[in-house]
Amino acid sequence: MAFSSWFSQTYPPAPTFSEDDIPRQNGKVFMVTGGNDGVGLALIKLLYPTGATIYMASRSRSRAKKAISEITSTDPSGTARLKFLHIDLADLPTVHSAAATFSAQEERLDILWNNAGVAVQPFGAKTKQGIEVHMGVNVVAHLLLVKLLLPKLRFAAASSRKNGTRVIWTSSHLMELKAPVGGVNLADVENGGRLSEPGESDDEGLGWTALMGAYTELFAGFSEEITERHQGKELRKPRFDQNSHPFTSRLDARCDLIEVTIHIGSIGFE
């Protein structure tokens, strides 16, 4: 990871894309996993004034209800609908039930933010289905959720502007700093190995806040500068500059990680 990229992500400048750039979203339906805390909560606070229907997909009902009450109290007469959707990404049957509950209530899904995730979990930790917990929560469960919600995403895409229906996968720059070269060897992980190099990330202590992360997700979800041509290999030589990307002046992600991402994406969505 280039020093310039690390520095701009760790000490980001003010965003150039914000909630002021988003038109009204009445009739649109959004979902944010892990939306009751951190970046997800900050994102939903930005989305709520748009008038959309927003699903806060979270594990803890009590924490989600508290967050929803906090948000809706700021505009009791608002046209937006903010709803709790129970999901435990460490337990795949709840992913099925969450998708079924959503599908019974909505005919469309315009944007899905796969925001929830875990990091630095104890060695040997697994999901209820016995999958290594980082892989199970951050990858497998979200991929299943996308697959189950594809009919709703396709329905929305049929009546939306080109590139307006999106699935956003979020991560941390810890991926670039700590991920093994060439990707994770799952056999090693199952035998007690590491998913990343030793070390932890404390973004909040380095000038980064949840709101800054939310602005990045907002940009990914709504900016018209993001199109299908920005997927895959073109990310190796980024075309964004300081005026278009919300924080960094470059998107010089590690090539080995981009190649793995392209491969997984082609399997999951073709």
UniProtKB/TrEMBL annotation:
InterPro entries: NAD(P)-bd_dom_sf, SDR_fam. SUPFAM superfamilies: NAD(P)-binding Rossmann-fold domains. It comes from the Eukaryota. It comes from Glarea lozoyensis (strain ATCC 74030 / MF5533). The keyword Ribonucleoprotein does not apply. Pfam families: adh_short (PF00106). Belongs to the short-chain dehydrogenases/reductases (SDR) family. This is Putative Uncharacterized oxidoreductase. Keywords: NADP, Oxidoreductase. The keyword Plastid does not apply. One of its GO terms (molecular function) is oxidoreductase activity.
